[in-house]
From TrEMBL:
This is Uncharacterized protein YcnI. Residues 1-35 form the signal peptide. The lineage of its organism: Bacteria, Bacillati, Actinomycetota, Actinomycetes, Micrococcales. InterPro entries: YcnI-copper_dom, YcnI-like_sf. The keyword Transmembrane applies. The chain crosses the membrane at residues 184-204. It comes from the Bacteria. Residues 36-93, 95-155 form the YncI copper-binding domain. Keywords: Membrane, Signal, Transmembrane, Transmembrane helix.
C-alpha cells in the first residue's frame, strides 16, 4: 500500500528530474554544422562551364554577414561572379570575394559563380569559405569532410558539369599496301625520264660517231 507521503516524494523526484533535463538541454549549444555556407545547385551551361549557387541563412551569433570569401580548389577556374543587390564581387585567380550590404541573421543570401571544372566524374570539389560579420565575428568553413564541424561548400562532379578535355588530332600511320603519296610518284617519274633521256642521248652519240 502506497502512502500519501510516498506519493509526494515520488512527485517531487519526477519534478526535479524534469527540471534538471530542461536545464541540461538549455546548456547544450546548437550544432554549427546545421547552419553553414552551401553549394545549393550546380547548373551546367552546355559550353564546358557550370554555374554554382552558394547560399547561407545565418550570421555570426546574431550579427549580420557583410563579407564572403571563397577559395577555388585544384581543377576549378573562376570565370565570373554574380553581384547581388548592394554587393560587389572581386575575382582573383584562386578566389572570389563578395562584400556589401549586411545580410541579417536568419535571412537567406544567394551568390552565383561561373566556373570551369577539370577532373573526373564522381570527383568531389571542396571550396574553403570564410564568412565575416559586421560585429567582427567570422566562421571559416574549411573542413573537407562533410561531417566535420565546419564543412566547406562541396559538390560532386558529373559529366555535364565538367569541361571537355581537348583532344589532339593524330596522323594515321601508313599501312602495308597503301598507295605511294603523290610526291613519291613525282620523284620516280623524274628519275625515269632522266634515265630514258640519258639512254637516248647515248644512242644518238654512238650513231653520230659511226656516221663520221
Amino acid at each position: 500500500m502506497t502512502t500519501r507521503t510516498g506519493r509526494s516524494f515520488a512527485d517531487v523526484g519526477r519534478r526535479l528530474a524534469t527540471g534538471a533535463a530542461v536545464v541540461l538541454l538549455c546548456l547544450v549549444p546548437a550544432a554549427p554544422a546545421a547552419a553553414h555556407v552551401l553549394i545549393e545547385t550546380v547548373e551546367p551551361n552546355g559550353d564546358g562551364t557550370a554555374t554554382l549557387t552558394l547560399t547561407f541563412d545565418h550570421g555570426c551569433e546574431g550579427d549580420p554577414t557583410d563579407t564572403l570569401e571563397v577559395s577555388m580548389p585544384d581543377g576549378v577556374e573562376a570565370l565570373a561572379a554574380g553581384q547581388p543587390d548592394g554587393w560587389t564581387a572581386e575575382l582573383e585567380p584562386g578566389s572570389v570575394l563578395w562584400a556589401g550590404k549586411a545580410v541579417p541573421d536568419g535571412d537567406r543570401a544567394e551568390f552565383t559563380l561561373d566556373v570551369r571544372v577539370t577532373g573526373t566524374v564522381g570527383q568531389s570539389f571542396a571550396f574553403p569559405a570564410e564568412q565575416r560579420c559586421a560585429g567582427g565575428g567570422s566562421y571559416r568553413w574549411t573542413d573537407t569532410d562533410p561531417s566535420g564541424d565546419h564543412p566547406a561548400p562541396t559538390f560532386v562532379a558529373t559529366a555535364a558539369s565538367l569541361a571537355e578535355t581537348p583532344t589532339v588530332p593524330t596522323t594515321p600511320a601508313a599501312t602495308a599496301g597503301s598507295p605511294p603519296v603523290p610526291t613519291a610518284w613525282l620523284v620516280a617519274g623524274i628519275v625515269l625520264i632522266s634515265v630514258i633521256a640519258g639512254a637516248a642521248g647515248a644512242r644518238l652519240t654512238r650513231r653520230h660517231e659511226r656516221l663520221t
